[in-house]
Write a structure and sequence with these properties.
Strand order of the largest sheet: 1-2-3
Largest sheet: 3 strands, antiparallel
Number of helices: 7
Distance between the termini: 24 Å
């Protein structure tokens, strides 16, 4: 598992006892899985309480901790691998044990949330279209094309059965609107390819 340099700096600061006090570290580690799981009610600790004097550093460390937990869970790291990753950021044995214990205890829940997120975003799997020409209608007398577009997408269900729902999205558009749609999709594709480093 490879983390960005910015996350590495945040984790090194999180492991530094001079920057993050032990009680603040414990609270950050305990609330972080609940923040990811959106289970805010179990901890009443507000991040503002922990950000008394070094708020920018605490926020940076907290963000790095959240990224570490999400990435470790998404890579399905076992305890030994997780421990070796955390050790590389100079955590002392007490902090290392606390963080590893929390990860071990909450890993299954974190992976469950990641699985639901991965499959809950609808994905377009097919497109169909039809071109009609409006020769004359009650509202206008010009000839113009009308495109009937149907996007077929799949999304995971909200339950834990893992089923897939096929949804159809239908809409009408003019030639100009269709050109705008195609141009927007091409721009999005180029942007994603540049982010991913694909040429």
């Amino acid at each position: 598992m490879k983390l960005s340099p910015k996350v590495g700096i945040g984790l090194k600061r999180l492991g530094n006892q001079n920057l993050i006090a032990s009680d603040s570290f414990k609270k950050l580690v305990e609330i972080s899985p609940d923040i990811i799981l959106k289970n805010h009610g179990s901890h009443k600790t507000d991040l503002k309480e922990l950000c008394t004097s070094k708020s920018d550093i605490v926020k940076e460390c907290f963000a790095a901790l959240l990224i570490l937990l999400v990435e470790a869970a998404s890579h399905d790291l076992d305890d030994k691998s997780f421990r070796s990753v955390v050790e590389s950021y100079n955590f002392n044995p007490d902090r290392l044990k606390l963080l590893t214990d929390v990860y071990e205890k909450r890993k299954k829940d974190l992976r469950s949330v990641l699985f639901r997120l991965q499959h809950s975003i609808p994905q377009i799997i097919d497109v169909s279209w039809r071109l009609d020409f409006c020769i004359k209608s009650s509202t206008c007398s010009d000839n113009f094309p009308i495109f009937f577009i149907q996007l077929i997408g799949e999304a995971a269900t909200d339950n834990t059965s893992g089923g897939i729902i096929i949804k159809k999205y239908n809409f009408l558009c003019s030639l100009e609107e269709l050109e705008e749609l195609v141009s927007g999709l091409k721009d999005a594709t180029r942007h994603i390819e540049s982010l991913a480093g694909i040429k």
